Structure formats: C-alpha cells, structure tokens
Automatic annotation (TrEMBL):
Upper classification of the organism: Bacteria, Bacillati, Actinomycetota, Actinomycetes, Pseudonocardiales
Predominant location: membrane
Compartments, record wording: Cell membrane
Name of protein: RDD family protein
Annotated transmembrane regions: 32-50, 56-74
Length: 150
C-alpha cells in the first residue's frame, strides 16, 4: 500500500538516530504526483498563451518545478506529492527540514532534465542518495508517522 513502510526497510543514520529510508516506489510516486500537480497545468495554460514557443513553455514549467520544490520542502521537508507518499526530505546532519538554501540547491539539481542526480540514487545501495541530495546534505526518509509498528 502506498506510504506503508515495512520494518525491514533500510535505515540510515540521520542526526542522532537511525531512520527508515523512503522506498524507491514512494519516491517515484511523489515525483509523479508533484509533476502532475504543477508542471502539467503550467504546460497546458502556457501552451495556450504561447502556442508557438514550446521551448519557453518547457523552461517556465521546469523553473516552476524548482520554485515549487524549494518553497514546499524548505520549511517542513515535504511537497504535496511527498506527503501523499508519506516521505520527506531531511538534513543528514540534524534530521531537520532542509531550509531554503538546501532545498533550492536540491530542487535545482533535481530538474527533470538533470537525470544524473536521480540516477546516482539508484546506484547508491546503502542510502539511495542522489547527487542532488549529496550536494544539499539531505536524504529522503519515510515519514516517521507512517511507519507500521508492532
């Protein structure tokens, strides 16, 4: 079930404790949800306003995604898609939300056109941190309120 995290999921040291990592499925669902919430409406509206300038429409939609990710994640570590998937972004050193500068760096590096940071997360077998997370000093974890306990 979406947002449900098993007890045997990998964990990582964050701040002074160990926390469960977000699942790959949760991360994908969160990104797709955020994409549908923001980029598709921007693309449709701007497609009518600027019908002959597809490049500008795509650029504005992508920049909108950076602003959306930054403003949503800076304060509480989540976007609407991440809340739906019950995952969040935290600082590795403290476990606190990333703050504006870290969220901006992460959002800018995680642009859909910037595939490399996301791909690196697939090959980081221990913590699944992409290049964008490493630069920003963040990690994506399961929302502790969503963990199934015994």
């Amino acid at each position: 079930m979406l947002g449900r995290h098993r007890k045997d999921v990998r964990t990582a040291e964050v701040g002074d404790g160990e926390v469960p990592l977000a699942t790959l499925g949760g991360r994908i669902v969160a990104r797709l949800a955020d994409f549908l919430i923001l980029v598709v409406p921007i693309y449709v509206v701007l497609g009518f306003v600027l019908p002959d300038d597809t490049g500008t429409v795509i650029l504005i939609a992508l920049l909108g995604m950076v602003v959306y990710d930054t403003l949503s994640a800076a304060r509480n570590g989540t976007t609407p898609g991440k809340r739906m998937a019950r995952i969040k972004i935290v600082r590795v050193d403290t476990g606190a939300p990333p703050g504006f500068l870290r969220a901006f760096a992460r959002g800018l590096l995680a642009l859909p056109l910037s595939v490399m940071p996301a791909l690196t997360a697939l090959f980081d077998e221990r913590t699944h941190r992409g290049g964008h997370d490493r630069v920003a000093g963040t990690i994506v974890i399961a929302d502790l309120g969503a963990i199934i306990g015994e």
